[in-house]
Amino acid sequence: MKVVDGAFVWRLYDTYGFPTDLTRLMAQENGLTIDEEGFDKAQAEAREISKRRKEGKGGEEVLKLDIHERGILEQDTSVPKTDDSFKFNLEPISAEIKAIFSKSTSFTKSTEGIDDSEQIGIILDKTNFYAEQGGQEYDTGRITIDGQADFEVNNVQAYKGYVMHTGYLTSGNLKVGDKVIATYDELRRWPIKNNHTGTHILNFALREVFGTGVDQRGSLVAAEKLRFDFSYGVCHIFIFANNQQPCKDEELARVEDICSEYISRNCKVYAEDVPLNIAETIRGVRKIFEEKYPNPVRVVSVGIPLPEILADVNNEKWVKISIEFCGGTHVAKTGDIKELVILTEESIAKGVRRIFAVTGSDAEEACRLANDFDAKLKKVERLPFSLEKLTYAQSLKAENDKELKGLIPAVRRSEFASRIKAVETEGQKMAKEKAKADEKLIISTITDYFQGEGEKKPGLVALLNVTPDPKLLTNAITTAMKKWQRKKSVYIIAADHSKVVHVCYVPNVSPFLCT
Fold this sequence. Notes:
- The structure is a single chain.
- This protein is of the alpha+beta class.
- The chain has four domains: 7-54, no CATH class; 67-184, Elongation Factor Tu (Ef-tu), domain 3 (Beta Barrel); 190-362, Threonyl-tRNA Synthetase, Chain A, domain 2; 433-514, no CATH class.
- 39% of the residues lie in helices and 24% in strands.
- It has 13 helices and 18 strands.
- The protein has helices at residues 7-16, 20-29, 36-54, 67-75, 186-210, 234-243, 249-264, 276-279, 306-310, 360-382, 387-403, 410-449, 470-481; strands at 93-102, 106-108, 120-124, 141-145, 149-159, 162-171, 179-184, 215-221, 226-231, 269-274, 297-302, 322-325, 340-349, 352-359, 459-464, 489-495, 500-506, 509-514.
- Strand 1 (93-102) and strand 2 form a beta hairpin.
- The chain is elongated.
């Protein structure tokens, strides 16, 4: 039996690093042969398409609908607004293509004739993809007709109710009216859900630490991180607007502790559409005040079912849980998040602070990196005093200040900075003490040598166990030789494991460093 699409076997080789001979052997064992000529042809075509995309012939910027194109959609009664209620479901769904769009053809009935390197926009009658909104990034995935066509979705945007899936056709063709299967990438959405629920928990924790004056000023929920911008009430705004002081380490630590405690309780996450006028009366509900919310509005509660909350909207207990207006996707229970750590906290405007944080495996990786650095720092802290110890400390300072910024928990990074500074301070103090002792040793060695019978000797050559510092040796020799009105010659050598310094003094000539 011959493999027509030999590229499948070769993708195994590319992905997992199987040797070519092993790939052939695996095919033979299964009674297959590899269509190497077909693969080479397909690979060349793929490279050409990739090259054209990179050159921008298909457009590197995401395909968008302008005002005119949106107007065309609104006038076309055959294209209804997209039902995106399925975006909260986990499973793929069946849908129908209602519109196809590209820059070269505008709206068209089929992808026939559109260059493979060109971006295409597809509008379905319903979708389970999350279109970018409310700070949460879009889903990616695939729209397919089994065995006939495959469309790679790279971006999803909403235009006044029309959801357009943007990407590239990788095989076959699509046309308006086709029944397709829409499947979003769950591996990408999973960390986004972690981060989104984490954002809600972070918002709650900030309010617990800094008070009810904390207001959300923006957010970003991506797969690799979350960003949360917040401001304070009048009193806090005055402090931060004028002094721009960062949050204290102990305050950030408390925020993280509250988040960790909330996550460890493995609370269920509930979401329901609630009439706006009722939702706004819920005690402690969080929302962005400048935002215009739909009616009904989706309310997300972490830990308490919405029917219980709605039965007694004024209950003071609701202040102690996270309740927010939100149309995003979330985890089923907080334990899925595993952990939340704050990576950075900074000012972005007067009275507005910004936090970057991570959850899940990214949070675990941040803690692992911090623990690795902690182990290195402990080794340096245990070293006896030496110039080498100071050098190591300075190297760790540079790593902590630059390389680890945004990669490890902010509180740990601040702790490391304090410990490194303590090593440097202690080292500088001991270095000064040793320099004084070394200078005293050099002076006493020279003066002792030239006393008594030594006064008749023309010079001194000595190897001393002192710090090999040119300035130290020069100053000490100059001080010692003033006693003899520069009538003696001195040659002092100092060395350690890394370098040798030797300074020569000749009467009536300034001391000079020998190399």
